[in-house]
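Contributing new records

If you add data, match the layout below exactly. Sequence lines come first and carry their own label; structure lines follow with theirs. Keep one chain per record. Anything else will be rejected by the validation script.
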Amino acid sequence: MTRRSWNGFARELGLLIPVAAGLILIIRGVVYPVVGLPRAAPTPMITLILLGLIGWFLRRAGRTWRDVGLRRPASLLGIAALTVLLFVTKLLLLPPISDAIGRAFDLGAPDHTFFNHIHGNVPAFIAWIAIAWGVGALAEEMVFRGYLLTGIAAVTGGTVRGPVVGILAQALLFGVAHVYMGPAAATSAGLGAIASGLVVVLARGNLWPAIIVHGVWDSLGVTLLFLKGVV
């Protein structure tokens, strides 16, 4: 997508960020205390609301989700290679980096206590696998690595500058979106978003490597929680 086709992106982002912040304040500050959910509970409904709002932005501007990466890959082999690369990076490279940052800045451990209810609970396991793919893998990648990365890169301009700024900006926002589990979790999420963003750029904007790895990664996490509980 050209820079001109994203002329309204700044206005869209100027609406999107306050809406997201307002939803977070309402849900975490009002709704969750009333229903008895803890601070470390996720908010998948916010991602879905933002996805709907972004879909409206795209339609108004004559764009579609294909324009931000939700399209058939030109090369299945290339997409498969990038998918494996991203998974191996998240499995082997990012954890020691995240741990080193956590120790250097004394970030503590991520707060995963909310997910204790998944342990041995088959209905909860099935529900969270569905959320992992529907909200985590698909919706989050469409919002962050699709719309935000593509839009920021387009309006920033430049062959290198735009993608770099897009990758870092969406990673920062993605990390902030996970701060409810603590600074260590936010740092890990941000690093993962950088890796996913880089792979999406290498895939010429195609989201499928990031979607597949995100879904598999979250599914493995939910499975471990089901089998072992929070460790």
